[in-house]
Each structure stands twice: as C-alpha cells, then as structure tokens.
Design goal:
Elements (H helix, E strand, L loop, with lengths): L12 H4 L14 H4 L5 H16 L4 H11 L4 E6 L5 E5 L9 H25 L4 E8 L3 E2 L3 H16 L8 E10 L6 E12 L2 H4 L5 H12 L10 E4 L5 H12 L4 E2 L12 H11 L5 E4 H6 L8 H4 L12 E8 L4 E7 L2 H21 L22 H10 L1 H18 L4
Parallel strand pairs: 5-8
Antiparallel strand pairs: 1-2, 1-10, 3-6, 3-7, 4-6, 5-6, 5-9, 10-11
Helix pairs in contact: 3-4, 3-5, 5-9, 6-8, 14-15
The structure holds zinc ion.
Length: about 425
C-alpha cells in the first residue's frame, strides 16, 4: 500500500537539480529529526518532486504545472512550543489535483473538518454508522478514462436517486491507479464514506454482493462483469477518531501505484501524463445527503484548511522556525529561527486569525426535532433525511415503512 515512489533520476535531471546553488552547505537540522511527527512531510515531498519531474516531460500545460509544483510547500513556517512540538503556521501549496503533497494535506483537512463538524453531526444524526465503500469498473485504456469517469458519476447519481438508496449521506473521492500488467491501462474507482442509520445494519443490510448488483444496475451492466466492492464498517465504538481516520483513508490517494521506483524503467510516464490530461475537468470529490448539509456543499479544501492541525489546545508558541525543501537530499531542513520582531508579528496574526475564525463559524441549519414533526427548512423528500427522521420518531417510522411497503407492492420497485 505504501506510495513509495522515489525519484527516477533519469527523468528530468535539470529539474531535479533545481537548487544547484545550494550545493553543500553545512548540515542543517532536518525537520524529521526535530519533529518526528512531521516525517510525512519528507515522504510526500519526495513523491511530489517525482511528479514534478514527470510533468516537466509533458505538454505546455503540464510543464506549467511542474513549475508551480516547484514552489509547493517549498518553505514552511512552524510555531514551536517550549517542548519542541511543531504546529504549521504558513505554507504555500500548488493545489494541483495529483500533487502528492497537496493530496496528503487535503486528506488531513478532511479529517480536521470531520472533527470540527462532529458536534453538529452528533446533534443531527447521533446514532449514524459509517462504512468505507470502494466501487470499481473494469480497467480501461487511459484514453477512455474521462468517458469512464463520467459514466461512473452518472451511474452513481442514478444509484443515489433510487428509492431504495440506503444511506443518509456520503463523501466520495475519485482515485485512479495505473495497471502494472498492460501498458496504457488504468483502474478508476470511487472511494466513499457512507453514512447510514443504525437500522441499516439490523434491517436493510447490503452485502458486497448486493452492492455489486446495485452498482451494476446504475452502470447498466451485468453484475458478473464487476469485481465485488470493498466494504469496511467503521467501528462505532471508535467514535470520531475512527470516522475521521476512515475519511482520511477515502482521500488518501488521487493516483497510486505508479511505481516510481529507481529500478523501474519509467514506461508508465506517458500513461500518467495522459491520465492527468483525461482527469482535467472531471469531478474529484462529491458530497451527498446529510454530509453535504453539514459541509454546506463545500467540496473544495481551502489553502487555510490545508494547513490543518489536530486540535492542540495546550499548544503555546515559543518560537517560529522556518524550514525549506532541499531538492538534492529531498528532505526538509531548518533554514532559520525567526527573530523577535517577526515572531511578535506572527503571533499577532495568529490571534487575529483565531478570532476571525470564531466570528465566522457559520451556524448550521436547524436539526430536525422530534416534536416538530415534518417542519424543517430542509427538503424532507430526500431519502437521507426521511430515514433520519424515522430514527428520531419511531411512530412515524412505522407509518412510513407501512406506506412504503404498500407503494412497493403497487409499483414493483424498479426505479
Ligand atoms: Zn502541491
């Protein structure tokens, strides 16, 4: 599973040597030594540098992206506590869809979003359960990737608009891997975190086989042509930590398995470049149902969010340290410790930002309350909300279920 693609030095020696002027300075302390928790910065930075090299081999558009990636995360400023704990304070990201550094930061941001929204989620759907679902289609030539993703998105839309759709909400990410056996073939799939009511597990449970049939119906193909979906329930005892970890997993990769190992021949490079062109304009993330409500339909992660850190209320900044990416050794190293004046300015900026954040925290729409019956601003016709209402008002649930059963026998549910 490790996305360990290290650089292929033969790909673009020119770009790799971008910092040739920083030849051999005295050894600077490394980020991974001063803050072992921040070791992933090095790994993702290495992958990002590899992709930067690949893009420099591409068309004009990709070469421009390569130049942008050169600046991605190049300089990081961390606040450092007395005990040496680090907290990221400023960074610039290229925000390129496939950039491994940005993909990683986005996955962390989604995790952070979940922690932030958790109290509201608990208010709206306290008993909701979650599972990770991966839906795939057979591998396709990379030149058909865009059409395939479009087909998958349409199939998904058909699937969630069916009366029998069992979920309260979802968040979905698109991931593409490059096939190892056949050159030029790719494997697109959807990673989803699905939110369901408790009754899903007791009454409406769908096995992997059921999900395959459901997905096949959306795609308009025979179930046998698809591999069985991967399903993994999130342990309800794990609370927000377990759900947030699953969310991060959903967003873990945009592209995986591109085998950028030093011993490989780089034969996948043209495929990756074409894959990047094909992905242009396709949807990377999709939100639905209650999850969409909670995040107000906001599928994009802002640069501010990409700096997300897990809440550390006791953290007190003592100093500010600046790190830079070393393109030759491919790690982060500390370039300087900020002086008193800059430190004071940054501290003031931090406080201002915290206050602003508190002031702008938009209130969520009112949750449905049992005593209010169907009065709500939300569209109650939506399956997710209807199911949720059932969980809250058992008497009404019984009626709805009865009504639905009657309708089903009338209509022969084929939608
Ligand atoms: Zn980036």
């Amino acid at each position: 599973m490790a996305s360990s693609f290290s650089i292929v030095p033969t790909i673009a020696p020119g770009v790799n040597g971008a910092s040739s002027k920083s030849k051999k300075k005295a050894d600077l302390p490394r980020l991974s030594e001063l803050s072992p928790d921040d070791k992933p910065w090095d790994t993702h930075g290495q992958n990002s540098q590899s992709l930067m090299c690949v893009f420099s081999e591409g068309d004009d558009w990709q070469q421009r992206k390569s130049e942008r990636m050169e600046w991605c995360g190049r300089r990081l400023t961390f606040a450092v506590s007395q005990e040496g704990r680090h907290k990221l304070k400023s960074a610039q990201f290229c925000r390129i869809r496939l950039c491994p550094r940005c993909v990683w930061r986005r996955s962390l941001a989604w995790k952070a979003r979940w922690y932030q929204a958790w109290p509201e989620i608990q208010k709206i759907a306290p008993k909701a359960r979650y599972f990770h679902l991966v839906l795939t289609v057979p591998n396709v030539p990379v030149t058909e990737l865009r059409d395939t993703i479009l087909k998958m998105s349409n199939a998904w839309k058909r699937m969630v608009s069916r009366k029998t759709w069992p979920a309260l909400g979802f968040v979905r990410a698109t991931e593409v891997t490059i096939e190892k056996d056949r050159e030029g073939y790719v494997h697109p799939h959807f990673h989803c975190l699905v939110m369901v009511s408790t009754s899903y597990f007791s009454k409406r449970y769908m096995t992997a086989e059921d999900w395959r049939a459901y997905w096949a119906k959306g795609l308009g193909v025979e179930p046998e042509t698809l591999t069985k979906p991967y399903i993994r329930a999130v342990d309800p005892k794990g609370g927000v930590d377990a759900v947030a970890a699953a969310v991060k997993e959903v967003f873990k990769y945009a592209v995986k398995g591109i085998g950028m190992n030093p011993d490989d021949d780089g034969s996948w490079v043209p495929t990756l470049l074409e894959m990047d062109r094909q992905l242009k304009g396709t949807q990377a993330t999709s939100l639905g149902g209650l999850i969409r409500e909670v995040f107000r339909g906001n599928e994009d992660i802002s640069e501010e969010e990409m700096m997300a850190h897990k809440d550390d209320p006791d953290f007190e900044a003592e100093q500010y340290w600046e790190y830079v990416w070393n393109f030759v050794d491919r790690w982060y190293e500390r370039s300087r410790i900020l002086g008193a004046e800059e430190t004071a300015a940054l501290k003031a900026k931090d406080e201002e930002r915290d206050q602003k954040k508190a002031a702008h925290a938009a209130p969520l729409p009112e949750p449905i309350r049992a005593d209010e019956g169907t009065r709500t601003d939300w569209d109650l016709n939506r399956t997710g909300l209807r199911l949720m209402a059932e969980d809250l008002v058992p008497e009404r649930a019984k009626k709805t279920r009865k009504r639905r059963a009657e309708r089903r026998s009338e209509l022969d549910d084929s939608s």
